[in-house]
Amino acid sequence: QVQLVESGGGLVQAGGSLRLSCAASGRTISSYSVGWFRQAPGKEREFVASTARSDSSSYYGDSVKGRFTVSRDNPKNTVYLQMNSLKPEDTAVYYCASRAGSPRTSIYEYSYWGQGTQVTVSS
């Protein structure tokens, strides 16, 4: 199985940028589609973005389209989430997750999860 570790979270002012990393071990990340999700206090975990294992196609949730970019570096066994023009409503714990098939938007479709990294955007 694959183990995932997120990093790169922190505190940033509105309008700023952060880049999150999802480092994989145990298996090669190129074998998996990877999704990014986030969960704010008192809210359900929601889909943010995903990248396909087959051709690295990317998909985004409506709330982050045009601001976030997902990418993968297979030799480094890492997937990234570049977050620009951050808003206070982006504050959440961000998780990466992997699945063997095509990317999905539902949390229930993903088999392996990281522990999460906190992103806080101040106004």
- Helix amount: under 10%
Order of helices and strands: EEEEEEEEEEE
Q: What separation lies between the terminal Cα atoms?
A: 40 Å
Summed over residues and divided by their number, the pLDDT gives a mean of 96
Coarse morphology: globular
If helices are DSSP runs of H or I spanning 4 or more residues, what is the number of helices? 0
Indicate the low-confidence ranges by residue numbers: none
Q: Which structural class do the helices and strands define? A: mainly beta
Tell me the fraction of residues in β-strands, as a range.
Answer: over 45%
Number of strands: 11
User: What value does the Rg take, in angstroms?
Assistant: 13 Å
| Largest sheet composition | 7 strands, mixed
Give your account of this protein's structure.
- This protein has 123 residues and is mainly β.
- It has no helices and 11 strands.
- Strands 2, 4, 5, 6, 9, 10 and 11 form a 7-stranded mixed beta sheet that branches. The protein has a 4-stranded antiparallel beta sheet with strand order 1-3-8-7, with no helix packed on it.
- It is globular and about 40 Å long.
- The termini are far apart.
